[in-house]
Write a structure and sequence with these properties.
Distance between the termini of chain B: 17 Å
CATH topology of the domain at 239-356 in chain A: Uridine Diphospho-n-acetylenolpyruvylglucosamine Reductase, domain 3
CATH topology of the largest domain in chain B: Glycerol-3-phosphate (1)-acyltransferase
Strand content of chain A: 15-25%
CATH architecture of the largest domain in chain B: 3-Layer(aba) Sandwich
Number of strands of chain A: 21
Structural class of chain A: alpha+beta
Shape of chain B: globular
Bound molecules: flavin-adenine dinucleotide
Number of domains of chain B: 3
Structural class of chain B: alpha/beta
Shape of chain A: globular
Oligomer: heterodimer
Radius of gyration of chain B: 25 Å
Largest sheet of chain A: 7 strands, antiparallel
Radius of gyration of chain A: 24 Å
Strand order of the largest sheet of chain A: 18-15-17-16-20-21-19
Distance between the termini of chain A: 41 Å
Strand content of chain B: 5-15%
Largest interface: A-B, 13 and 12 residues
Helix content of chain A: 25-40%
Number of helices of chain A: 20
Number of helices of chain B: 26
CATH class of the domain at 239-356 in chain A: Alpha Beta
């Protein structure tokens, strides 16, 4: 690994950067890091020796929930006093009491703490269908020394992503079709071997990265009769080299976001790619789904970040011959790989752009009298191309939701949250508390520029009636995105189910789309017999020159419904129809998977779909990568 | 769309109880009524936007910017000039709704209504539903239009019931009436030129104006989908321009949904009844001058019985559009740019507009007089009072079976119903020695010696007046009646063959009666079903068989359509035998009229109703549609060229002399 004289300066910045990450992600002192030695790979010479154990072990069950989001030690619950608290030590909210959550929860959903809907207590390995193994494949695999398992728990863990229906099923103890075995390649060469064997023995391979998919991409196709092998990339997690002259890093595709950033930070760098799922999602997964990070305004989306990709396919390895920053060599073959959702092969190594860790970072927030004004402001910011690293606009419902997460004691929050109502009434006179909404901001760069930039953005906001509402408020907004997935699990303990979904849409349609989709959800729920009005809320999470990314949450109380899952699926389907009818895209970053496949042809035209199919046909004629996503 | 929304076979939702809104008005003073507190719950809590803000929004719209720029480029005039012009159009058009004027108007209308009507009956359930609808989505009020009186009646009712006041699309002629024009504007009327033609700028301003109101939901929009006041009291086929404008914000996703509220207004007796008949006979109507109608003391002192206003079930456009409209068709072009509506959209707009007229028909409350008029017209020589009473009572049973709403007073003997109706309509009907007969209209100016032509018109005037009242009930019968006629003209009893004939008749009469496009099969089924229901028909194994004891019903139903069948044949005869091959629009009506007159004097005109210029026009339009007449523009005149052989053929089919070619009339 290269180094230069400035390395101590880099170290300093890196330390700071770590603090920042910890700031919106997790507790700083995380001394009790779970030590898992998982480095059985036949070490490659160039491997960096500063490698730390990766944060997610091979046996995910050791630290992660089998039927919910995230770490087993971290969860929301209502304690005996009926107060909400967040357990564990990992996050800022960990160990804190959230006194207003109960009221919000009951008020919003008509839920009741007396009415519990607990999940199945433990994974019942006996209920998992036995694996359908290909003897000959297993035989030859053994010879390669690549670790594998057909343990029921390992298989169940890799049978799903995090769609509501997947988690809901697990909570009810339904396991569905699981992969028949799991393999853990340690490097590119291992993957080449596995793919060769799979082709030879006609088994179905399904790449598995961080398991955070929200498009049913990891669901095993029930119609698949071959043996299904989940190819878990988690052990391919090394930064192979850092090129400080060109500011690139060559990384194994199984590395997960938090490890990648942590390791790069140690050298004073970052990728700046921060999807909300970065604690668990992997580089390969990002490439395979065309992921988008919260700070794309500075760093770009995944397609802007990759310089070189190596992918193993049944036809062989695909990669470019050089690392030129742009090429005119026909259609960019990277774009067959980006968004291929595991249908063509396994991404094994990626060269990515890196940046020095920014010197300074500052949160901010602006309160607007209503959502229209907020959107108008974001539009203007986009027009002037002065969007901060991140700018997000939450609607009123989400703003109120944010309040409900006010912890009891926390110096960070007290200033802003204590007497919040008073604060708003005195400071934002004339703002209707049922209408106002808030934009959260994150600025990055060198200090002076950040301050300058900040002023520019606040000036624009002021033109749209926006008033600065403090740093804490902004920071809290970002924290929320990391705990929201945990909150869904709490809801499910009390008959509340929910999901999020996203789209991208031209600027002029943002308001109409938001209103119509939210309203559609409310009406569909009512029609389907949902007793209490659902939570139906959205935020604008990304801005582009010609449009924005909009993210919806919806959740409802399903008590009294005979088939709640079906109701939920119908509502989600209707919401997607509404998005498409209002000029929104099928997906901005979650991908298509199997969940949104039915709309693919409409989305890209039948010729477009045909083009993709013919690529699949050529690359993988025997459908070895048979997860049946996308096409 | 649930096709059933438009058919009457479905159990019609009851309009609910009607209550007399004048009753309370009579107990309180007009002044305290006019000054009552008024604080309606608006749409989504938005306060109505001011007329000026609306003007500004329209002028600032991207759409108008685009169009004005385009016109400026085409006409090589500075865009400022075009925008100035647009602003002028907008000025001329804009409503200027003011509560104070509504109060003044309330005061006046209160006085007038109390004096002319016995009761104004309103279904409060409908108003409650409307109140609900107004809060959720932009609302379009779609009343039928039968009288000058109903122009402001909805505003009056909504004011009374504390609902948001509508803005109302009105014709420019109303604006021409000086004082009244301004008064109407301030009561929420906005004015539309009668003939817009290809005036692109005008269309643009109008449509943006209407869309802006709908989009912002600033006020319910009221418009007459029939386009005009119906002179015949029959429903008119809808006009689609305005319908499209109000629906567009939904198509383009600018609003979540729009509620269409059909409203059926009906009168026991019309203030302008004699005017109508004279218009149809070609006696020029008095210009719509300021006090024109209401000034006439006599009119105001007379008794006009009751007025019914039925607020129908609000219809969700979103529900209607389900599966019919792909809203994503607007995805690829900025929504602000002018775009020719797709065929899918056009068809949808047409179906909705026609469907709304049907709903208006369905909810109309009929008066006993409509039924009596029907019977009187079938007995031009008069009939015994007992027979009239019997026949009317019998007809009453039939319309109720057919699902219509009838305002037949309870706890009153049939005889009393007859006599009170006749006394209300004593200008039309006389009763001497237990015989009832139609009168003649008084000679204008009381001329002593009357020319034979004038005598014809005097008789015809009463017949057409009477026919108007009958027309109000026609929609109830038209489908089974068409089936009955089709059966009579079809030699076989095969359902399929009868249906072919039915389709031909429907095609021919589609200017006469309102049929939702593309629903011939449902109309036919409905017709058959009703005939079965009244035991006039048995269906088995794809055969339609008339029943013995239903003969009376069948022949009555056929007789209902006779005046139309006869008039069409008369006009066909004229066109094939008497008319020139080519004539202008202006020549047509007078020529047909004098032909009819000639026949009358010779005692050969089968029905006075043939003298109605409305029906005469409808015949011409039907022939145009069926390509038996072609129309060409010569200068600013339209020229018609007749294909005599084709008309002959249509006449023969109508008379049952030859069968229709099913393919030739497959519009439906
Ligand atoms: C709470 C939460 C927040 C999220 N926030 C974001 C966000 O901010 N931005 C965003 O873009 N997405 C987000 N997502 C969605 C998800 O995290 C992304 O789709 C992510 O890219 C998936 O990565 P993964 O490693 O978890 O892939 P997995 O879920 O394991 O797999 C996803 C798909 O990629 C394929 N795949 C995985 N690895 C490889 C590989 N090496 N080679 C070939 N194919 C592969 C799989 O076969 C599968 O089809 C979020 C999800 C959750 C649950």
């Amino acid at each position: 690994m290269a180094s230069n004289g400035k390395s101590s300066e880099r170290q300093r910045i890196a330390q700071q950067r770590l603090r920042i990450i910890a700031g919106h992600l997790r507790k700083q002192e995380e001394a009790d890091h779970i030590e898992i030695a998982a480095q059985e790979c036949k070490a490659e010479s160039s491997r960096t020796d500063t490698a730390k154990p990766n944060s997610v072990p091979k046996r995910r069950q050791e630290i992660m929930k089998w039927n919910g989001w995230g770490y087993s030690d971290s969860k929301f619950l209502f304690n005996k006093k009926g107060q909400a608290e967040f357990t564990g030590k990992r996050y800022r909210l960990s160990g804190l009491i959230l006194p207003s959550l109960k009221e919000w929860f009951e008020g919003t959903f008509g839920a009741n703490l007396q009415h519990k809907s607990p999940a199945a207590a433990a994974l019942n390995a006996g209920a998992v269908p036995p694996p359908n193994l290909s003897e000959s494949f297993v035989e030859e695999l053994k010879a390669t020394d690549i670790p594998f398992s057909h343990d029921a728990e390992d298989r169940v863990f890799r049978s799903h992503g995090h769609c509501l229906h997947e988690i809901f099923g697990l909570r009810e103890g339904q396991y569905g079709r699981c992969p028949d075995m799991v393999v853990w390649p340690n490097c590119h060469i291992d993957v080449v071997k596995i793919v060769e064997l799979a082709c030879k023995h006609n088994v179905c391979l399904m790449p598995y990265g961080g398991g955070t998919s929200v498009s049913s991409a990891l669901e095993c196709p029930p119609e698949e009769t071959r043996s299904i092998v989940s190819l878990d990339t988690s052990q391919m997690n090394q930064i192979l080299w850092i090129d400080e002259k060109n500011l690139t890093a060559h990384v194994e595709a199984g590395i997960i976001g938090q490890d990648l950033e942590r390791l790069l930070n140690e050298s004073g760098y970052c990728t700046g790619h921060e999807p909300d799922s970065m604690e668990f999602s992997s580089l390969g997964g990002w490439v395979a789904t065309r992921a988008s990070g919260m700070k794309k305004n500075i760093y770009g989306n995944i397609e802007d970040l990759v310089v070189h990709i190596k992918m193993v396919t049944p036809r062989g390895v695909i990669e470019k011959s050089c690392q030129g920053p742009r090429m005119s060599t026909g259609p960019d073959v990277h774009h067959f790989i980006l968004g291929s959702e595991g249908t063509l092969g396994v991404v094994t190594e990626v060269t990515m752009k890196i940046r020095p860790v920014p010197e300074y970072q500052k949160y901010g927030s602006v309160v607007f009298p209503n959502f229209q004004q907020g959107v108008a402001c974001l539009r203007e910011v986009a027009k002037q191309r002065c969007a901060p690293a991140s700018i997000r606009l939450m609607d009123n419902e989400q703003f109120q939701f944010g309040h409900a997460l006010k912890p009891q004691v926390s110096s960070m929050f007290t200033s802003f949250l204590d007497g919040l109502k008073k604060f708003y009434i005195t400071k934002f006179k004339g703002f209707d508390p049922q209408q106002l909404c808030v934009a959260t901001l994150l600025f990055e760069g060198d200090r002076e520029k950040v301050l300058q930039h900040e002023k520019q953005v606040y000036d624009i906001a002021a033109k749209f009636g926006g008033l600065a509402a403090g740093e804490d408020n902004g920071q809290r907004g970002y924290m929320l995105t990391f705990v929201i997935a945990y909150l869904r699990d709490l809801g499910m303990d009390y008959y509340v189910m929910g999901e999020s979904f996203e789209t991208s849409v031209p600027w002029d349609r943002v308001l109409d789309l938001c209103r119509n989709v939210k309203e559609r959800i409310v009406r569909e729920c009512k029609e389907k017999g949902v007793q209490f009005p659902p939570l139906s809320t959205c935020r604008v999470t990304q801005t582009y020159d010609s449009g924005a990314c909009v993210y919806f949450y919806f959740a409802f109380n399903y008590r009294g419904l005979s088939d709640p899952l079906n109701v939920y699926l119908q509502v989600e389907h209707a919401a997607r129809e509404e998005i498409l009818a209002n000029g929104g895209s099928l997906s901005h970053h979650h991908g298509v998977g199997k969940l949104r496949k039915e709309w693919m042809q409409d989305a890209v035209s039948s010729v477009g779909l045909g083009m993709l199919k013919s690529v699949k046909e050529y690359v993988d004629p025997d459908n070895i990568f048979g997860n049946r996503n996308l096409l | 769309m649930e096709t059933l929304v438009w058919t009457c076979t479905e159990k019609t939702p009851e309009p609910g109880v009607f209550s007399d809104m004048l009753e309370e008005r009579r107990r309180t003073s007009d002044l305290s009524y006019a000054l009552k507190s008024y604080s309606p719950q608006p749409y989504k809590g938005h306060p109505p936007s001011s007329a000026r803000a609306l003007h500004q929004a329209v002028m600032d719209s991207q759409y108008l910017r685009y169009i004005t720029q385009e016109i400026a480029t085409e006409s090589r005039e500075p865009v400022e000039v075009i925008r100035e012009e647009a602003s002028g159009i907008l000025e001329e058009m804009s409503h200027n709704l003011q509560l104070s004027v509504i109060r003044l108007l309330g005061y006046t209308l209160n006085k007038v209504f109390k004096s002319v009507f016995r009761r104004i009956l309103v279904n409060e359930d409908g108003l409650n539903r409307l109140q609900q609808a107004i809060q959720e989505h932009p609302v379009i009020l779609m009343p039928n239009h039968r009288s000058y009186v109903d122009f402001l009646v909805l505003s009056y009712i909504l004011f009374t019931y504390d609902l948001p006041l509508p803005v109302i699309a009105a014709g420019i002629p109303l604006m021409g009436m000086k004082l009244i024009g301004e008064l109407l504007r301030r009561s929420g009327a906005f004015f539309i030129r009668r003939t817009i033609g290809a005036d692109k700028l005008y269309w643009a301003v109008l449509s943006e104006y209407v869309r802006t109101i709908v989009r912002t939901g600033s006020a319910p929009v009221e418009f007459y989908v029939e386009g005009l006041r119906s002179r015949t009291l029959k429903s008119l086929n809808p006009k689609l321009g305005m319908m499209h404008m109000v629906l567009e914000p939904f198509f383009k996703g600018e609003v979540y949904d729009i509620s269409l509220v059909p409203i059926s207004v009906s009168y026991d007796r019309l203030l302008e009844e004699s005017l109508l008949a004279h218009e149809l006979l070609g006696v020029p109507k008095p210009k719509e001058t300021t006090m024109g109608l209401l000034k006439a003391r006599k009119v105001l002192e007379d008794d006009y019985g009751s007025m019914h206003v039925c607020f129908g079930q609000p219809i969700s456009v979103r529900e209607l559009a389900k599966g019919r409209i792909t809203r994503s068709q607007y995805n690829l072009v900025p929504r602000d740019l002018p775009q020719k509506p797709s065929e899918e959209i056009q068809a949808f707009v047409s179906v909705v507009a026609h469907g709304m007229v049907r709903l208006q028909e369905r909810d109309t409350v009929l008066s006993p007089w409509s039924l009596m008029a029907l019977i009187l017209l079938q007995n031009p020589e008069g009939l015994a009072l007992v027979t009239l009473t019997q026949r009317t009572a019998w007809l009453r049973g039939l319309v109720l079976k057919f699902g219509a709403h009838l305002d037949w007073p309870a706890q009153v003997s049939d005889e009393e119903v007859m006599s009170s109706s006749m006394s209300l309509h004593r200008s039309m009907v006389g009763c001497e020695g237990a015989r009832v007969f139609l009168l003649e209209a008084p000679a204008p100016g009381g001329e002593a010696s009357v020319s034979p032509e004038a005598a014809v018109f005097r008789r015809a005037a009463v017949v057409l007046m009477c026919a108007s009242y009958r027309n109000q009930v026609l929609h109830v019968f038209v489908r089974p009646a068409l089936v009955a006629v089709a059966m009579a003209t079809t030699p076989s009893t095969r359902k399929e063959d009868v249906f072919t004939n039915f389709k031909f008749l429907q095609e021919l009469f589609s200017n006469e009666f309102v049929f939702v496009p593309g629903m011939a099969a449902q109309d036919f089924e409905e017709g058959c079903l009703l005939l079965v229901k009244c035991e006039a028909l048995q269906t088995s194994d794809q055969q339609l068989v008339r029943t013995e004891h239903g003969a009376d019903t069948t022949s009555c139903l056929q007789a209902i359509l006779q005046p139309f069948l006869q008039t069409y044949q008369v006009v066909f005869n004229y066109l094939t035998k008497d008319s020139a091959l080519v004539f202008t629009e202006r020549q047509y009506i007078p020529a047909v009229r004098s032909y009819c007159l000639k026949l009358t004097l010779a005692g050969e005109l089968p029905t006075c109703e043939a003298l109605s210029s409305d029906t005469q026009k409808n015949v011409l339009n039907a022939l145009l549609r069926m390509n038996a007449v072609t129309k060409t523009k010569v200068g600013d005149q339209s020229e018609f060229r007749v294909n005599k052989a084709a008309i002959q053929r249509i006449g023969d089919i109508l008379a049952g002399r030859i069968p229709p070619q099913s393919a030739a009339f497959s519009r439906l």
